[in-house]
Amino acid sequence: METQSNTKITTASVRVMQSFNYSNFEVSMSLENPDGVTQLDIDQARMQAQALTNKAVRDYQEDRQIDIKQGAESERKKLLGKIGDIKASIPKREITDPSEVEKIANLPLYTPPAKKAISKKPVTKKVK
Question: Does 125 reside within a domain?
Fold first, then answer.
């Protein structure tokens, strides 16, 4: 690109920075052309750099999702292991048989005994 003073620009650099989820992605590009660098060349380089940072963010998001899933699966396995350890530590005699649980579940609901009816007749005492 030539300016009004007929200075030919033969090198240019483009830098694109993008932040996502407290992570920074940066692409720097240099352009060099002995015949001169145009504004269009610089703009295309900027768009290419932006596309690269966008791809970096997408890759980061995909990797993060994989890490989250693997972490959740690892946590699940760890908790299942703890459950197994707890079950193993309980003596068999203290574990309710599932058929007993079913019987207990089918028992009628507890109904408290009825209270004696209170007489509504006023009580009078004779005073001497």
Answer: no
On whether residue 42 sits in a domain, the answer given is yes
Query: How many domains, the chain?
Result: 1
Of the candidates 11, 83, 76, 12, the residue with the CA atom closest to the CA atom of residue 46: 12
Could you tell me which of 18, 39, 15, 41 has the C-alpha nearest to residue 29? Answer: 15
pLDDT, tens digit, 9 for 90 and up, residues 20-39: 888 888 999 999 988 889 88
Cβ 82 vs Cβ 47: under 8 Å = no
**Mean pLDDT to the nearest integer, 9-21:** 90
Give CA–CA dist 122/128, Å, rounded: 19
Is residue 59 situated within a structural domain? yes
More confident residue, 87 or 43: 43
Domain containing 37 equals: 11-64
Q: Residue 51 — pLDDT band, cuts 50, 70, 90?
A: very high
Residue 51: which residues within 8 A CB-CB, separation 6 or more? none
Judged by DSSP in three states, 28 sits in strand
Question: Could you tell me if residue 128 is inside a domain?
Answer: no
